[in-house]
Amino acid sequence: MPIFTALARTVPLGANKKTQSKSSAIKPSFTRRRILPTIAKNQAATRARICVSVKTPIRSTYLVSNPHFVACSVAAYLEIYDVIDGIRDGGTFLLNSIWDAEQTVAKLPNKVKKILAEKRVNFHIINATKLAREIGLKNRTNTIMQSAFFKLADIIPFADAQKNT
What is the pTM of this model? Predict the structure, then answer.
């Protein structure tokens, strides 16, 4: 059962509902969503978890602590929060960064680099901020991040995820 965890600067309720409904569009599919507000160092962020199962209903009520997929919409959060501590071995980490790949890797905290290496994480960097502006979405990076999630997580065919966007 793929577990998606996201850390964003605002409550991404609309994006999470849309992700949940798109994940459920392919039958049989089951989803469960939890939104966890996080506040630290005078900065508010939201941790959202979406569990998706294409085979069996999700019956657990506990909070999953080792996701398959983690996304972070603000690179600076890697310095403030333990964003990827619980990611599974071979999991996928998607980071939105305004810097190019070389600069982003250079700016990653050593703790994050260590986790990425030890857990053999598939690490992807996207400049969702730039892409959103280029296609007229202004600062709506959540739409770009959601598209990248569907492409990378491979929960449903990407062509199906693109419908009704």
Answer: 0.73
